[in-house]
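Progress note, sequence design subtask.
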């Protein structure tokens, strides 16, 4: 029955008409590095030459201008990094995983950018950081499994033990033994696989801890050589002799 998985894998490759992974250009963070350098220069000049709390007006103007420039270049840096990661992850794990990674990078980047801007403007953030740390600990404990799957998903996207459309064999005691299927999607929480028994969503943490390898061709060929069982409803040639014998016995 593994020929069904082979057809599913071919259909998945046809669904993603983009270039093969080997032909996709490598990471290019030059624009992000240039904008990050501009943001750091603006932050350094604002801290050295400006003073928001200073009485001279020109010191305040320098500090506010540096903060505005830092905000502009910081936003550009976050946008460039998120776009480049979106392109890389889309080639490795599909558009769903790419969208999740882009959203995660964007939210984290803007949160850090806001905290730095508040510090530059001399806004006290100690209490905010303390409250955020306590909230982070509570959320981390409550969502430990979800965060573990998210980090495992990032590791799978970076390490690339398999990609969308591959036929793989998974062996794990925690997942119930050994099973095989075609990878249909990769996200930050689950890996979706089309198996003989139907669609299966496997947690990323389980896939990362499992032994994963390609499905053997010999095993696929043996299963393809097996004839499907006869359908007792539609296979009239197999049913007719039995029916005649049954009539003879009744006579």
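Output:
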């Amino acid at each position: 029955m593994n020929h069904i998985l082979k057809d599913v894998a071919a259909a998945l490759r046809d669904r993603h008409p983009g270039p093969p992974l080997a032909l996709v250009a490598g990471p290019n963070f030059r624009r992000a590095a240039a904008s990050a350098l501009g943001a750091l220069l603006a932050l350094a000049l604002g801290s050295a030459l400006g003073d928001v709390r200073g009485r001279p007006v020109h010191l305040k103007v320098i500090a506010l201008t540096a903060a505005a420039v830092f905000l502009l270049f910081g936003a550009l840096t976050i946008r460039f990094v998120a776009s480049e990661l979106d392109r890389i992850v889309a080639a490795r794990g599909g558009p769903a995983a790419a969208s999740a990674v882009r959203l995660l990078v964007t939210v984290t980047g803007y949160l850090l950018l806001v905290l730095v801007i508040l510090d530059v403007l001399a806004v006290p953030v100690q209490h905010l950081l303390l409250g955020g740390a306590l909230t982070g600990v509570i959320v981390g404990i409550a969502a430990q499994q979800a965060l573990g799957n998210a980090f495992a998903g990032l590791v799978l996207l970076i390490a690339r033990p398999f990609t969308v459309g591959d036929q793989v064999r998974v062996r794990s005691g925690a997942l119930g033994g050994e099973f095989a299927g075609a990878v249909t999607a990769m996200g930050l929480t689950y890996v979706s696989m089309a198996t003989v028994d139907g669609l299966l969503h496997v947690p990323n943490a389980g896939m990362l801890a499992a032994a994963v390898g390609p499905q053997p061709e010999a095993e696929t060929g043996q299963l393809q050589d097996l004839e499907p069982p006869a359908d007792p409803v539609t296979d009239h040639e197999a049913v007719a002799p039995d029916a005649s014998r049954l009539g003879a016995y009744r006579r």
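DSSP finds nine helices and five strands in the chain. Work on this subtask will continue into the next period as scheduled.
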